[in-house]
């Protein structure tokens, strides 16, 4: 009965995850089938008699299959108490199924039994990775199986696995199980009022995922950033993750942004960055400290339309801080990279680019910066926008920029003289 005593020492979280499952100690650890003739061996683990006899006497094994402990005493003691519990549980479940068949509860999928069997194996067996892989192949079938998995408390089970990498005793096998768990979790819907969101947004879970974002395989990092992207579309508060992980969190996001192989991971990381930076100035300062401005400026020239717009949006958010503007103007390609994307990629990119130039002109208008804008192209692009028909907030910003610095630029021979009257510029009396 030692295995029954162990089950009673499980945490409340373990019990809540198992409320709707067949108790794992009712199944043989070898076959994962309900035991009909349970026997306990010297290590205290209970097995179906036929299975453990085959293990010892047919396969000539001298270890306990579940614990891998060496076994010298091959005596088997019938576990009558467990057998009575199994029979009682099966009787109770048969009655519950009869009631459920007449209720309006969602019908389980045709993979329901397989899902529960694999969840039980994950809870009870030290060999979790293969069971999670099998579960993953089932979950990928359709939305019905995903919903059945959630109703079966599958998310609770996988979150428990995630949390295990926070333990000092976690090993490579635990890490691999965590990676496989993320393979399933990233496929699930994450809605703000849903159970999946509530479990994944717990501090332990977000800390585990942040660790996987830094140390996981390429596939695990993609799955983690996909989950973070879904969480970013809710009202999730990122302050704990940022405070807990510091600039390392932003460095891991920037590494994904720089990923030239997996464009999906890069795009997701940019979307997560936008949400985090929009939330608070402190977050922007952490990102700047992690080198975000430099990384984005160097990636910007080769970016496609979608990534370019996202990168410009991140740069714009960073330039709302003095430290971000300073980093941009000090980078040799900062101003010219922004300029080249204006009027070249999309209306959205042009609009964001003008906002960035406006922030620099308004808050960081050193003589060197203004001269660089005239020489490297931004002023030429702003002039082109000024000649476009109609009025817009972008064009209004352009007019304000010229009114602020037109007197500086008009001293250069390349500045069009006919714009002076249009902008209401006058000779500087000084």
Architecture overview:
This protein has 430 residues and is an all-alpha fold. The chain has helices at residues 2-8, 12-18, 49-58, 80-100, 112-124, 129-139, 143-151, 154-164, 172-185, 195-200, 203-215, 218-232, 239-245, 247-257, 263-279, 281-289, 292-299, 305-318, 322-330, 334-341, 347-363, 367-376, 378-386, 393-409, 419-423; strands at residues 38-40, 46-48, 77-78. Strands 2-1-3 form a 3-stranded antiparallel β-sheet. A hairpin with a 5-residue loop joins strand 1 and strand 2 (46-48).
Average the pLDDT over all residues and give the rounded result: 83
Share in helix: 55-70%
Which value, in Å, is the CA radius of gyration?
Answer: 31 Å
The CATH topology of one domain is given as Leucine-rich Repeat Variant
Strand order of the largest sheet: 2-1-3
Q: What is the CATH H-level superfamily of one domain?
A: Leucine-rich Repeat Variant
Output the CATH class name of one domain.
Mainly Alpha
Strand content: under 5%
**Number of helices, counting only DSSP H or I runs of 4 residues or more:** 25
The total strand number stands at 3
What are the main properties of this structure?
mainly alpha; Herpes Virus-1; Leucine-rich Repeat Variant; 25 helices; elongated; ubl conjugation pathway; Ubox_domain; transferase; U-box domain-containing protein; ARM-like
Q: Can you give me a brief rundown of this structure?
A:
The protein is mainly α and 430 residues long. It is 65% helix and 2% strand.
